[in-house]
Amino acid sequence: MNAGRGDEDHLAAGGPARHIPVLRDEVLAIADPRAGGLYLDATFGAGGYSRGLLAPAGARVLALDRDPLAVKGGASLVEAAEGRLTLVEARFSQLADVARRLDFSDFDAVVLDIGVSSMQIDDAERGFSFRGDGPLDMRMQPTGQSAADIVNSADEATLADILYYFGEERASRRIARAIVMDRAKEPFVSTAALAGMIARVVPGKPGDIHPATRSFQALRIAVNDELGELVAALSAAEGVLKPGGKLIVVTFHSLEDRIVKQFFAERSGRGEAPSRRLPGEAAPKPPTFQLPGKQPVIPSVAEVAANPRARSAKLRHGVRTSAPARPVDAELMALARLPQRAVKGR
């Protein structure tokens, strides 16, 4: 994965774009890379952040990407870094395990740039885009269920839930019903076929995003378990940062941002009022992060003009305290999963 991600419209259907790291200057200003520092770029992509983190003499970077093509593409940067960059094919939820296996610890900063990359969008064969026809895949790594598997096998209620909760698609039930009816005649195998069917069922208005945008986002999130990965990665990052280390997260849509915002609020003790606790009630856990400055940080007008995919980006960050790391929060993980019961009336 790499910077150059953007809002739902561009994520689903954006045309070719240079791989411009979103909020790069802001990310690097917060990370404040220094000579001899140790940094973790958990979403390597095209290496935009890693290059900046490696700039000071002697700085070292552990970088991860679940996409084998991104890892292969980073070989030249690994060589140029002369031992200061270690690039591993892995999900960012596995960052603590990878760091432990390679004997890395006490990072000065961890950077997470969430979502699908420009490289993935622009390659029609990956199935993320519906403006260039390709196989209905959407997998960030070549394992597990594809989008076609879900579309052609999930029951109508599950499909509707995926579209509604992961894509915030108000016409989820109508689209799910049409998918089930149409796939009985012929399975969906291409992005154009699915996008065309959605446009027929839910016609768009001039000036609106393409009618299939939210559905494609939802399927991509379901295929790659993006929200579950995010929750696990936030907790893992907390465990590998040294006191004073920075966790920096760039998100591109409201579902991601809600999880990151809630994680930092809970971990920083924001909203706690110890004096109002009931007698015998347990004291709050010590905060594991402090939240400096005004947040979220958003792209400048100039950056959005230069890179439209940046327009929905939000950056949130925290500074690690010396308090013990906590396990994954069950309530936070619940935000990453489909609810047990579907909400009626949509």
Structural features, described:
- It catalyses: cytidine(1402) in 16S rRNA + S-adenosyl-L-methionine = N(4)-methylcytidine(1402) in 16S rRNA + S-adenosyl-L-homocysteine + H(+).
- Residues 270-296 are annotated as: Disordered.
- Specifically methylates the N4 position of cytidine in position 1402 (C1402) of 16S rRNA.
- S-adenosyl-L-methionine binds at residues 47-49, 65, 92, 113, 120.
- With 346 residues, the chain is an alpha/beta fold.
- The protein has 2 domains: 8-118 and 227-273 and 281-335, Rossmann fold (3-Layer(aba) Sandwich), CATH 3.40.50; 127-223, DNA polymerase, domain 1, CATH 1.10.150.
- 40% of the residues lie in helices and 12% in strands.
- The chain has a 7-stranded mixed beta sheet, with helices on both faces.
- Helix 9 packs across helix 10 (172-183), helix 9 (156-167) packs across helix 12 and helix 10 (172-183) packs across helix 11.
- The radius of gyration is 21 Å and the shape is globular.
- The two termini are 33 Å apart.
Quick structural overview:
The chain has 346 residues and is an alpha/beta fold. It has helices at 8-13, 24-31, 48-53, 68-73, 75-80, 95-101, 118-122, 147-153, 156-167, 172-183, 191-201, 213-224, 226-240, 254-268, 301-306, 330-335, and strands spanning 38-41, 60-65, 85-89, 107-113, 241-251, 289-290, 314-320. This is Ribosomal RNA small subunit methyltransferase H.
